[in-house]
Amino acid sequence: MKRNIDWEDLRLFLAVAKAGGLAGAATKTGVSAATLGRRVSSLEKSLNVRLVEREARGYLLTVAGQELLRQADDMEQVAQSITTWRESGQTRRRIRISAGEWSMRLLIDNVTDFWSTASDWVPEFLTDVRVRDVARRQIDIGIRNARPKQEWLAGQKVGTVDFAVYQAKTVSPDKELGWIGLVEDEAHYPTGTWIRENHGDEVTITVNKAPLALSLVRNGQARMLLPTFVGDAFQDLVQISDPIDSLRTERWVVMHQDERHEPSVRQAVSAVAKLMKRSPRLCSNQ
User: Fold this and answer.
1) How far apart are the C-alpha atoms of 176 and 93, rounded to whole Å?
2) How confident is the model over 43-66, as pLDDT tens digits?
3) Which of 121, 160, 186, 282 is most buried when burial is the number of CB atoms within 10 A of its CB?
4) How much is the average pLDDT of 238-262?
5) What percentage of the chain reaches a pLDDT higher than 70?
6) Residue 187: DSSP 8-state
7) Residues 104-112: what's their mean pLDDT?
8) Where in the chain is the domain with CATH 3.40.190.10?
9) Helical H segments across the chain, by residue range
10) Are strands 58-61 and 52-55 parallel, antiparallel or unpaired?
11) 133-139: long-range contacts (C-beta < 8 A, 24 or more apart)?
């Protein structure tokens, strides 16, 4: 039965062939002459062909050995190209990070605080209404508002999120100002439900995505319930209510139990968690 070729045997054979013997190859590769001799013999057995004539002055390649040298030399050039590609940084792992729209903007606004082009991983940011599945590897890291319940998930609590009511500072205190309400999927979120139950008859404008309300609030068109890490970031906004206890949520960084010790995932989780624990705000210059 034929044996599979050991690629390390090929690499060492190439060194022996180019050096003309074991001594020169040993100096170049750092592998002992005895080991090199065994690896060449192993390769001959794998290929079922004699590659060298063992003479007193060194190794003389047979016809088959000369042909293999040409083939192996091409392989070495390919290997060097792969090494160059690897060292260029293009093989860095892409870490898929999922979060809600506000939290995703928070990450993107503060990306330079937890990631740089010199990092050993590359972020891929994903946000949508559905919760992407960590278990099926749809994402590597999820920013969630509760402790993960599945046994195959691991989580790290990194803070809390408060919500309060904001309006533009330019709005006169005695002006009757309407509210921005939420429709479609977000109407059923806790924030959408709270607005509907407490100020439903005061809603003058509706949006289907809460972040769309920010410009409307800053322009003095209406007031809105915002996360405090959003509202407090803008000097042209004023908080007109205390944080609403019933809307407070936890903030968790979630990852797969089996993946959390993988170096690039561990680095990404640590970097994101460190940022979140500082309770960052949105960048107000955007």
Assistant:
1) 53
2) 998 888 999 998 877 788 999 989
3) 282
4) 93
5) 91
6) G
7) 95
8) 94-159+249-277
9) 7-19, 22-29, 33-47, 63-87, 101-109, 190-199, 213-218, 228-231, 263-277
10) antiparallel
11) 134/254, 134/255, 134/256, 135/256, 137/256, 138/96, 138/98, 139/96, 139/97, 139/98
Q: Which tokens go with 56?
A: 């007193």
* Integer Cα distance of 182 and 188 in angstroms: 8
Indicate the burial class of 248 (C-beta count within 10 angstroms; 0-12, 13-18, 19 or more).
middle
Using CA atoms, how far apart are residues 78 and 13, in angstroms rounded to an integer? Answer: 16
Provide the residue count of the chain: 286
- Tokens for 63, please give them: 């016809």
Asked if the 94-159+249-277 domain carries CATH number 3.40.190.10, the reply is yes
Mean pLDDT of the region 189-197:
96
Give pTM, 2 decimals.
Answer: 0.68
Q: What is the CATH number of domain 7-87?
A: 1.10.10.10
Residue range(s) of every CATH 1.10.10.10 domain in the chain? 7-87
Q: Are strands 141-144 and 93-98 parallel, antiparallel or unpaired?
A: parallel
CB atoms within 10 A of CB 279: 15
Instruction: State the fold for domain 163-247.
Output: D-Maltodextrin-Binding Protein; domain 2 (3.40.190)
> What pLDDT, on a 0 to 100 scale, did the predictor assign at position 85?
62
